[in-house]
Design a protein that fits this description.
mainly alpha, disordered N terminus, disordered C terminus, DNA-binding, DNA binding, Transcription factor MYB41-like, repeat
Length: 358
DNA sequence: AACTCCGTCAACCGCTTGTTG
DNA sequence: ACAACAAGCGGTTGACGGAGT
């Protein structure tokens, strides 16, 4: 260490490259190859340091560089690669022909990171942000939503707002319930670490269920309208979150305990949207816990495979080419869609991600 | 028209890694 | 084993242009 920088020479030009400089660099490399970058500027007649020349060539002048807007496939691939590799831009660039590490890095920081944030996904962990501190705001929000009915705003607008707000809140609660239940097993220290939210411990299952019931009030009763008359005006309003008893990803160990079984059964019973879907499937509205149907995952699935340090054993074997290679695949696996849904789970994710974020 | 704010992206900086003598 | 060097890498900066006021 302690090596002096290569560009400390006084009088070496910095800043944007001129077309003339570009031409000199391209001509030289075409004729001689770049060879030793340190000697290149002198040989090519450029008043630049070798490092600057190398960067200009690799990030801009190289003939195989694909410029222009990133395609949706490229976006998805970058998100997946980032979930697996983290900020290894150069490794990501090897998977995206024609794209440079610098370009991918910039695109991530200026577009994709924000997109994920807008979707409520933590761009570092690639997990949904179960912001339980926000849940603390739900009771006053619910009260405010109910008070909306007293305002003079057009009824239809009020209903839309209430429906959207309630569905959004319900989604948040569902997510939190899944996480809460998933860490009930004392064996699952990993899940606790992954969740890493101190405030989570402060929330009781019953608190969340109570909030869901309150939401039902907003959805169904606050304005004296049956639920099927609440206007469905947006993607969120159309969302149902059914079929939890079949697809709810409880922990295998906890499912073998009375506590685990009771919790899942209680959860299913308590959620009206669960009953809604089960009826449509011809199943009992009071589900019997079926240990044969216990799914496998034991924490809230990540929208893409997890960060390197969180990767599963399978993913560690071949994380980049893992079959769980598309964003949302794990969540899609939850099969939260029901046959009578206005909007499928996948549609919902697509809608809030690729359209609203852009 | 003038100014400010903000997003984008090329380029730079400094650290790490790999190679060579 | 060590030092010196080149190349690679990722975080950050700053110029630029467009949008908003």
């Amino acid at each position: 260490m302690g090596r002096s920088p290569c560009c400390d020479k006084v009088g070496v030009k910095k800043g944007p490259w001129t077309p003339e400089e570009d031409r000199k660099l391209v001509d030289y490399i075409h004729n001689h190859g770049h060879g030793n970058w340190k000697n290149l500027p002198q040989n090519a007649g450029l008043n630049r340091c070798g490092k600057s020349c190398r960067l200009r060539w690799t990030n801009y002048l190289r003939p195989d560089i694909k410029r222009g807007k990133f395609s949706e496939d490229e976006e998805r691939l970058i998100i997946h690669l980032h979930s697996v590799l983290g900020n290894k831009w150069s490794m990501m660039a090897t998977r995206l022909p024609g794209r440079t590490d610098n370009e991918i890095k910039n695109y991530w920081n200026t577009h994709l990171r924000k997109k994920l944030l807008l979707m409520g996904i933590d761009p570092v962990t690639h997990r949904p942000k179960a912001d339980l501190d926000l849940l603390a705001m739900l009771p006053p929000l619910l009260a405010a939503a109910q008070n909306l009915g007293n305002l003079t705003a057009p009824l239809d607008n009020v209903l839309r707002l209430q429906a959207d707000a309630a569905n959004l809140a319900r989604f948040q609660i569902l997510q939190s319930l899944i996480q809460l239940t998933s860490i009930t097993s004392p064996l699952d220290a990993d899940a606790r670490n992954l969740l890493g939210s101190a405030s989570l411990q402060n929330y009781q299952f019953s608190d969340l269920l109570q909030m869901n019931h309150q939401l039902e009030g907003v959805m169904d009763g606050s304005l004296g309208l049956p639920q099927n008359q609440i206007p469905v005006t947006s993607g969120l309003s159309g969302l149902r979150i059914p079929q939890l008893s079949n697809s709810f990803q409880a922990h295998p160990e906890s499912s073998n305990t009375l506590e685990g079984q009771e919790m899942v059964a209680k959860f299913s019973d308590s959620c009206s949207f669960t009953e809604h879907a089960m009826e449509s499937n011809g199943q009992s509205t009071h589900p019997v816990f079926n240990s044969n149907a216990i799914p496998t995952s034991h924490s809230t699935p990540s929208l893409v495979s997890t960060s390197p340090e969180h990767a599963s054993a399978d993913q560690k074997q071949d994380p980049i080419n893992s079959t769980a290679s598309t964003p949302f695949e794990d969540w899609e696996g939850l099969n939260l869609d029901g046959p009578d849904n206005d909007l499928s789970w996948k549609d919902f994710l697509d809608q809030i991600s690729w359209s609203s974020a852009s």
